[in-house]
Amino acid sequence: MEDWVYRALEKWPNVPALFGWLGLDRRGRWTIRGEIISRPQIIDTINPNYAADEHGRWYFQNGPQRGYVTLESAPLVLRTDGAGRLITHTGQRVDRAEAGWLDEHGALWLRTAHGPAVLEGEDLHWVLERLRGPRTPVDEELLAEALALPSGAQTTLSLRFDDGTLALGRLDLEAAPQALGFVREPQPLSGE
After folding, report:
1. A Pfam family this protein belongs to (predicted)?
2. Range 26-31 average pLDDT
3. How far is CA 100 from CA 48, 138, 155, in A?
């Protein structure tokens, strides 16, 4: 969080939180009431002040007010930068992951130091270039076999990072929040 946020929290400690206003779509775009936020100044304010609470609810801390974020997919959406490195939609670099899965649609889910993340869509070539399996290169048949496994199963695939490989499991899209510890649609808890 930025310093101005902490100063505002000290000055106004009991501002009620907002629910249902802010969102993050599956492409890593911020939304307000379903409309994409396109102003760079607003995005640059949200990104460094985005975090999770102890219940797995992700929020934007806007000074003294916390705005909980409805997630279309994961709390963090991964992209590749110009050098082929992974970065979160908030600009944090991801060099390694603690665990990884493929969902039934072929999207890559990672547990990173920054939080649960997904890479899907335009940057899936990054995954395909780094996939390893019992046969190299990984072909469509081997990938289809992995995607056909039940959620929770271990695949024969791994993902190569600069410092080693990460075994990949299978995880259904709907099982991701529970498995990775996040809430897609945050609600107030009693007493909030």
Report:
1. DUF2944
2. 96
3. 25, 17, 11
Query: Do residues 67 and 60 make contact, with C-beta atoms less than 8 angstroms apart?
Result: yes
Domains of the chain, residue spans = 3-72, 76-179
Distance between CA atoms of residues 15 and 11, nearest Å: 10
β 99-102/65-71 pair status: unpaired
What CATH code would you report for 3-72? 3.10.540.10
pLDDT tier at 32, thresholds 50, 70, 90: very high
pLDDT tens by residue, 39-71 = 999 999 999 999 999 999 999 998 888 899 999
pLDDT in tens, 123-157: 888 998 999 999 778 899 999 999 999 999 999 99
Contact present, 179 and 171 (Cβ < 8 Å): yes
> Which residues, at least 6 apart from 72, have a Cβ–Cβ distance to it below 8 Å?
23, 24, 25, 26, 184
